[in-house]
Amino acid sequence: MPTTDHTATADAGSGTGAGEAWTALRHLRHLLDLLDRGAPAEQFAPPAAPARGPHLDEPDAAVVAEATRVALRIRRTLGQHRRREAELAALFDTAGDLARLRDPDAVLKAIVRRAKLLLGTDVTYLSLNDDEAGDTYMRVTDGSVSAAFQQVRLGMGEGLGGLVAETARPYSTGDYRDDQRFRHTTAIDGAVAEEGLRAILGVPLRLGTRVIGVLYAADRTARTFTPDEVALLSSLADHAAIAIDSARLLDETRSALVDLNEASRTIEAHSHAMRRAEKAHDRLTDLVLRGADITDVATAIGAVLQGGTLIHDADGTELARSGTDFGRPSAGAVGASRTGGRAVSADGTWVCAVLAGPELLGSIALTGRPDLGDADRRLFERAAVVTALLLLQRRSVAETEDRVRGELLGDLLTGAADPASLPARARRLGVNLDHPHAVFVLHCAAAPRQRLLAAAARVAHSRKGLAGLHHDDVVLVLPAGHPRSGTGTGPGPGAGPGAGAGAGAASLAGELGQVLAGPVTVGAAGPVTGPGRFPDAHAEALRCRTALRALGREGSGAALADLGFLGVLLGDQTDLGGYVHRTLGPVLDYDAERGTELVHTLRTYFDEGTSQSRAADALHVHVNTVVQRLDRIGRLLGRDWQRPERALEIQLALRVHRIQRPQ
Q1: Calpha distance 367→372 (Å, rounded)
Q2: Which residue has the higher pLDDT, 418 or 441?
Q3: pTM for this one?
Q4: Which of 508, 497, 504, 503 minimizes the C-alpha distance to 443?
Q5: Euclidean distance between CA atoms 584 and 126, whole angstroms
Q6: How far apart are CA 456 and CA 467, in angstroms?
């Protein structure tokens, strides 16, 4: 039946179409199942044509093929996502591990170890930049076997790593030795060849815009690094740079804390030393303000520093000592302390110059403390400042007193003031003008006048005398009874006003010459008593000092009486009898006691031109008698009696004696 055939044919056609559609749907469902299971890519191939049943027509087959391709893409995308998820998880784990590490070396080792695990390469390593040297050097490796490779340094721009460090960009190579993009050097190529590396990937370790190093992954076989591997290593490098900086900051913080603790201990010790120094300074200053002397200060310094102390002035004169028998410190040690402004150690003894600005006032020596620490040394130097204050105070008082003494001395020597007021003024200064005094005029070409005056003032203070400048000359007035003035015995019989002062002048010349390290010439006169006698005594001492220098006797001391007939000529009072007695006294006394005629024999001897035979004829005695008499005269006058200068004095005295002899 036509109708039946048509329906059957329609049903048959409809069954065939439905079968083909069902086949296509089953394949699509199969693709979804494969995606769900994560099946390998080879299982996604289109199914083979079935032996029975409907076949896919061309449009359906095209749809199935396209669906297969889409499924494969989806599979790849899912694989990438899963791999990226695993990498991110690994990065997070790495970040956590790095955050827990505190030691910089441990952080660096963990970085290269995790890079090796993440990328699965043969070798990973890390280099750090050396800003001072201008290169990058190998710091940590994992998987390396070459010592040369582990110690290689790369200049900026050299090799792959140097280029990464210079440009702050990642670089990779499938085979380094044949890649001409990089600047090859013998050292780098040799180290890479010894390690056997071919494929190398390097990414920068960046902190902001600054590159601190390079992280590498390398294989010993040639291959190409994928963008995902570059991104993964770059991400790890970013975490690593932060971890490196954090570890560095933590290490610096630890060091800072250690330094801070040490600084705290130092500050505490310094504070204790400062408090101790302040107490010592207050104690010493209080001594000075209460009028303590230099010995009290030396004792206090020794007690504070637990040692012996010795104080000298600028000329090396000892001022005080406490608890030590040490001698004067060397000029070299004092000079070194003065130059450096600090205490110096010399043979176990500490020496500190006492200064007032650039002026040297003296020195302090501390004995018994060879191991003096910094705090005690500063305390010792502070003690020198207090000592300087005391010496300046003493000098100020002394200068005031010296000015008063100088004014009194000037009035005494000029005779301009009221003589009646002078004794009272002198008594206020501890000087008794009712006692005989000698006058000395000083000169020293080797030292400034002020130094000579200072030395003379010290002598005056110690012997209750006066010292000062008078008409540009340094003048000393000392009591004649002082044991060191040289005038304690007083004048001899028949002596004039200059007798007895010569020995004191000679003693002063020697004493002051040692202090000033140069010849000091001293002319003397006196002793005199009463204010009215001092101007004449000063004039005589000045003439004597001038005569000594004219005679070439620099560095000696004498009175006019010691200059023989020259002294008689220069003196205001012509004491011819005293001159004869000082010159011929022993011979005159011998004749007076024994009734001999040695003086007559001596006169005849000179009258006859010092001829013994002619003298014997003139005396009408044998020549041997003359010889014996002259020998006796020599024993009385001294062996040098016939020297020209002495012989002249004797002849002059003989002539004066003849004139003065009673007729």
Answers
A1: 10
A2: 441
A3: 0.40
A4: 508
A5: 113
A6: 6
Per-state percent for the chain, helix, strand, coil, to nearest 5: 60, 15, 25
What are the DSSP calls for 336-404, one per residue? HHHHHTS-EEETTEEEEEEEETTEEEEEEEEES-TT--HHHHHHHHHHHHHHHHHHHHHHHHHHHHHHH
| CA nearest to 605, candidates 619, 588, 591 | 619
- Distance between first and last Cα of the chain: 220
Whether residue 485 has pLDDT greater than 50: no
Query: Measured between alpha carbons, how far is residue 638 from residues 566, 602, 627, 650 in Å?
Result: 20, 14, 16, 12
Sheet with 557-559, strands from edge to edge, namely 466-470, 473-479, 437-443, 521-528, 557-559
Tokens linked to 21: 């559609």
pLDDT digits (tens, 9 = 90+) for 533-559: 888 888 888 888 877 876 677 888 888
φ, ψ for residue 262, nearest 5 deg: -65, -40
Query: Which of 124, 33, 100, 106 has its CA nearest to residue 71?
Result: 33
Rounded CA-CA distance 653/350 in Å is 63
Kindly list the distances between the CA atom of residue 541 and the CA atoms of 359, 436, 486, in Å, as whole numbers in the listed order.
Answer: 34, 15, 15
Q: Is the pLDDT of residue 498 over 60?
A: no
- List CB contacts of 404: < 8 A, sequence separation 6 or more: 429
> CA–CA separation, 655 vs 661, rounded Å?
10
pLDDT, one tens digit per residue, over 267-320 is: 776 676 666 666 666 667 776 666 667 788 788 888 888 888 888 888 788 888
Instruction: Calculate Rg over the CA atoms of the chain.
Output: 59
Q: Which two tokens stand for residue 116?
A: 């090796």
Q: How far apart are CA 499 and CA 516, in angstroms?
A: 28
Cα–Cα distance, 293 to 296 (Å, whole number): 5
Contact 107, 101 (CB under 8 A): yes
Question: For 44, phi and psi rounded to 5 degrees?
Answer: -90, 10
- CA 580 to CA 563: how far, in whole Å? 13
Statement: residue 625 has pLDDT above 90: no
CA distance 315 to 332: 14
DSSP 531: G
